[in-house]
Design brief:
Elements (H helix, E strand, L loop, with lengths): L1 H25 L2 E11 L5 E10 L5 H24 L4 H4 L1
Antiparallel strand pairs: 1-2
Helix pairs in contact: 1-2
């Protein structure tokens, strides 16, 4: 039972990682392209374009990201403590 519980904790941890990444990409806002002049090799001026992506700090999606991050850190500490028991069956 403990091995199955540890396996489910590991699956939960990986699911939280994937879910947080999905939510982060889905809720990105304020995509802007910034151009700036850069001197070229032969003295000419080249334009370099950078893509900047922002995220609103005070939003429901950011709060959800924060809560999921806290849960992910707690699960990772539980998995670390299981591994520190040096029980080979649980570590595998």
């Amino acid at each position: 039972g403990a091995c199955i519980g540890c396996f489910l904790l590991a699956v939960l941890y990986e699911g939280l990682k994937i879910g947080r990444e999905f939510l982060l990409r889905r809720n990105q806002v304020n995509v802007r392209y910034n151009s700036m002049p850069v001197p070229g090799a032969d003295g000419t001026m080249l334009m370099e374009t950078h893509k900047t992506v922002g995220q609103r700090m005070l939003s429901l999606s950011h709060l959800l990201q924060t809560v999921l991050h806290i849960i992910q850190v707690m699960v990772s500490y539980f998995l670390m403590l299981v591994f520190m028991t040096y029980n080979a069956y649980l570590c595998i």
